[in-house]
TrEMBL record:
<comment type="pathway">
    <text>Protein modification; peptidyl-diphthamide biosynthesis.</text>
</comment>
<keyword id="KW-0378">Hydrolase</keyword>
<dbReference type="GO" id="GO:0005737">
    <property type="term" value="C:cytoplasm"/>
</dbReference>
<dbReference type="GO" id="GO:0061685">
    <property type="term" value="F:diphthine methylesterase activity"/>
</dbReference>
<keyword id="KW-0677">Repeat</keyword>
<keyword id="KW-0853">WD repeat</keyword>
<dbReference type="Pfam" id="PF00400">
    <property type="entry name" value="WD40"/>
</dbReference>
<dbReference type="InterPro" id="IPR015943">
    <property type="entry name" value="WD40/YVTN_repeat-like_dom_sf"/>
</dbReference>
<dbReference type="InterPro" id="IPR052415">
    <property type="entry name" value="Diphthine_MTase"/>
</dbReference>
<protein>
    <recommendedName>
        <fullName>methylated diphthine methylhydrolase</fullName>
        <ecNumber>3.1.1.97</ecNumber>
    </recommendedName>
</protein>
<dbReference type="InterPro" id="IPR001680">
    <property type="entry name" value="WD40_rpt"/>
</dbReference>
<dbReference type="GO" id="GO:0017183">
    <property type="term" value="P:protein histidyl modification to diphthamide"/>
</dbReference>
<comment type="similarity">
    <text>Belongs to the DPH7 family.</text>
</comment>
<dbReference type="InterPro" id="IPR036322">
    <property type="entry name" value="WD40_repeat_dom_sf"/>
</dbReference>
Length: 453
């Protein structure tokens, strides 16, 4: 780990929200806008407690409910200025939200009531305003046991061509829950969609996830490892080219992965691969996700001494030494370069960031000298604020593990409570300044700051 002192950043603007912010993300379609999800806990005391009549033998409990909002904000990076444009009130709190990686106006959210909702963020032809609006598309329950009582904690979309069959499921997402379950929801196969009369977009039966009500999605459930009900805080999906096929275009073979992290500190890895045998039409379209799973392993908390709260597959197309390279964050305050090479895994580098590492995002990837790649990463570090981190990989060959280093370049520490949500502006920069927004939960701060790269 590099020992250079990070630069300390001061805010340019601070706004105060009306509810605690839990997550945020910039709009890919228009990078001057971002959406904040909020989480508000309501506590209602029983009537006898409210009137002061409770006694030592009373077994009454406080009733808790959760609500939230989606808030659309505009960022002027030049002025600079932050302006709230729209607030959508929700009957549940928002644990997580993410824009679709290919349909850039679609936004998925994970709700405290065990639901997933889909929204669009776009300009309406029926509105004279010149800014986009949040519009609801559908909401569905994604947990079948005691609906509404088990929260959805995290949601991630399928990367391109992630589903491990040659005739891929067009689209879908994975979601984790407070009881440790991970569920994958995929759009119907073309043949199944045709049988159900759902050829909606004229592309050979390919199903558009934004059409309909979301109830025809195909669900695959993966229960908590060892059957222990504990929060599964994070899920990440990724696909990699096998090393032996990386240089042979005629026989490229890829593997798909589901990575999950739980509150015990365990990192679970499920690997999927389409079988070599194909159907008469050259596809394996009748195979389910479970049919393609070839391994299911856990490191049993060997490396993380508290809950695993962030898993970031680094943007490396091929596996390295036959295994993926991940960046992980944990309640134990460490960011780690993690080689998912076996049931045990290996930590290649680590750095303590001063607070629980709740979220990680790749800002930029740069190939420096021959054999060196730098990953610039934004980290939301709970009570320690926000960090900008450089992760460096040096190696002689592309598939070599090589040497890894983690350097904290900058820190933003004005938040007075948990920094769960941060983001960076992806508009056209005329300077080397990086524009960021970050939030804190209990003091409801929204801060804008710049970093000279």
């Amino acid at each position: 780990m590099s020992s250079e002192k990070p630069q300390s950043i001061s805010s340019l603007i601070t706004e105060f929200l009306d509810q605690p912010p839990s997550c945020l993300e910039f709009c890919p379609q228009d990078p001057d806008y971002f959406v904040i999800g909020t989480y508000l806990l309501h506590e209602e005391k029983p009537e006898q407690q409210q009137s002061g009549r409770e006694n030592a033998s009373s077994t009454s409990t406080v009733k808790q409910t959760k609500t939230g909002t989606l808030q659309l904000w505009h960022l002027n990076a030049t002025t600079p200025q932050l302006q709230e444009k729209q607030v959508v009130t929700l009957s549940h709190a928002v644990f997580d939200l993410h824009f679709h990686p290919r349909q850039s106006t679609l936004l998925g959210i994970a709700g405290s009531d065990g639901t997933v909702s889909l929204y669009s963020i776009s300009c309406s032809h029926h509105d004279s305003s010149n800014y986009p609006h949040i519009q609801h598309i559908w909401t569905r329950s994604v947990h079948d046991e005691d609906p509404g009582s088990i929260p959805s904690l995290y949601l991630t979309w399928f990367p391109k061509s992630w589903f491990p069959t040659t005739s891929s499921y067009p689209d879908g997402f994975a979601v984790t829950f407070a009881d440790g379950r991970t569920s994958v929801f995929s759009t119907p196969l073309p043949a199944a969609a045709a049988q159900q009369g759902k050829e909606r977009n004229g592309e050979g039966g390919q199903h558009d996830i934004a059409k309909g009500n979301g109830l025809d999605l195909i669900e695959t459930q993966f229960e908590a490892p060892n059957g222990v009900a504990i929060e599964a805080w994070f899920v990440a999906l990724a696909s990699y080219t096998e090393e032996e096929a990386a240089t042979d275009d005629s026989s490229i073979k890829s593997s798909s992965f589901i990575f999950t992290g739980d509150d015990f500190g365990s990192l679970n890895i499920r690997k999927f691969c389409a079988p070599d045998e194909e159907g008469d039409d050259g596809t394996s379209s009748d195979l389910s996700l479970e049919d393609c799973m070839i391994s299911d392993t856990s490191d049993r908390a060997r490396h993380h001494t508290a809950g695993v709260t962030a898993i970031l597959p680094l943007p490396i197309m091929n596996m390295v030494a036959n295994a993926p390279i991940l960046l992980t964050g944990s309640y134990d305050e460490y960011i780690r370069v993690y080689h998912a090479n076996s049931r045990r895994g290996t930590v290649l580098a680590e750095s303590r960031l001063g607070g629980g590492v709740w979220r990680l995002q790749v800002i930029d990837t740069e190939e420096a000298d021959a054999g060196e790649i730098n990953f610039l990463v934004l980290a939301s570090c709970m009570h320690a604020g926000t960090r900008v981190v450089k992760v460096t990989w040096k190696r002689r060959q592309a598939t070599e593990i090589g040497d890894w280093d983690i350097q904290v370049l900058a820190q933003f520490t004005e938040h007075e409570s948990m920094n769960y949500a941060s983001g960076f502006w992806k508009g056209n920069r005329s300077t080397s300044d990086m524009v960021c927004v970050s939030t804190s939960f209990y003091d409801k701060r929204l801060c804008l700051w710049k970093l000279q790269l």
